[in-house]
Amino acid sequence: MFRNKKSRAAVAIVGAVLMASSVAACNRGEAGAAAGKTVIGFSQATMNHPLRVAMVDGNVAYAKEHYQEVEVKVSDGQNSAPTQVANMESLIAQKPKAIILSPVTSDALTPVAKKAMDAGIPVLTVDRQVNTPVTSHIGGDNKAIAVSVGEFLGEKLGGNGNIIEIQGTAGASATIERNSGFVEAIAKFPGLKIVASTDGDYQRNNATKFIENNIQRFKSGEVTAVYAHNDEMALGARLALEQAGVADKVTIVSIDGQNEAIQAVADKKLTATFTYPYGVPEAIEAAYKAAKGEAIEKSLVLKSQRIDQDNAKDFIGTGF
C-alpha cells in the first residue's frame, strides 16, 4: 500500500518527537487510562531505520486523526532484543487494551508476546512475526516477495551470474523469509550462484563495508548482481560499487520501496525495488478494533509492487 510520505529527514525528526512524547507517556503510567483514554502500546524493534520510523509515524498520526480517545504509547527496542523485551514487560504492566509488536527477532520476543496474550491483551505483530499464536499478523508476504525478486533477477541476468546477497537482521522472520524465497526462486536457474553472503542488519553502512571488503575477492565482472534484503543496504552497496568504479556492471535489486531507492531506480542506479507494505494504517485500525473487543482477521497479507526502470517515474514520492 502506498501513501505520500515526508522526506526521510523529516520522518526521522517526527519519529524522534514521537519517541520523546512516548517516554513521557510511559512515565505517566496509568494517567492516560485514568483520563479515559484507550491505551494501545506500540513496541517497535528499532527507530534507526526509515521504514520503522514511517511505520510508527503513520500509525500514530492516523490514530490522532481518527481515534480521538486513543493514546498510543511507543517504545524503541533500539535493535536490541533484551531492550525490546523490557519494553514489552513495561507495556504489559500498564495493561493496555492492545499491543502492536514489530519484534527484533522472533525467538527472543516469543515468550513476552505469549505473556501479553495470556494476560488477555491482544497482540498484533507487524512485518516480523513471533513463534506463538497472536491476535493478528499484519504485513507483506516476505517469502513471496523474495521469490518475485529471484525470478526477476534470473530473467534479467538470462539465468547466469554470480550474486552477492546482503541479508537483514539474523533471526528476524523477515530475514529468514527473504533469504529462503530468493534461494527457492534462483534454484530454477542453474547458472545463478550466490558467491558471498552476510547479515547486514538492514543497515546501509554495513552493506557498504561488506562490498568494500569483498571487491578484492573477485575479478572485474565476476560479480554480476547484488540482492539486498532492503533498500538501505542496496544503496550502501551501490556506493561501494561506485567508489570501485564498477557500479554500472552490477545489477542491484532490493526490497522496501523507500523514496530514495525509487529515485535511484529512476536514475538507473538501482535495477529494481519491490515494495514492502509496512502496515499504515492497517496496524492501528486492527489494534483499535481489538481494543474494542471486535473480531479481526487472524492474518492480513498486504500486497507488494515491483518498481523497475520502466515504471519508477510513476512511483516517485509514493514511498516513505
Describe this structure in words.
This protein is an alpha/beta fold. It contains 11 helices and 12 strands. The strands form 2 sheets. It has a 6-stranded parallel beta sheet with strand order 2-1-3-4-5-11, with helices on both faces. Strands 7-6-8-9-10-12 form a 6-stranded mixed beta sheet, with helices on both faces. α3 (50-66) packs across α11 (282-291) and α6 (142-156) runs parallel beside α7 (173-186). The longest helix is centred in the N-terminal third of the chain and has 20 residues, at 8-27.
Order of strands, main sheet, comes to 2-1-3-4-5-11
Strand content: 15-25%
Average pLDDT, rounded to a whole number, is 91
Q: Care to count the β-strands?
A: 12
Radius of gyration: 20 Å
End-to-end Cα distance, whole Å, is 11 Å
What's the order of the H and E elements? HHEHEHEHEEHEHEHEHEHEHEE
| Principal-axis shape | elongated
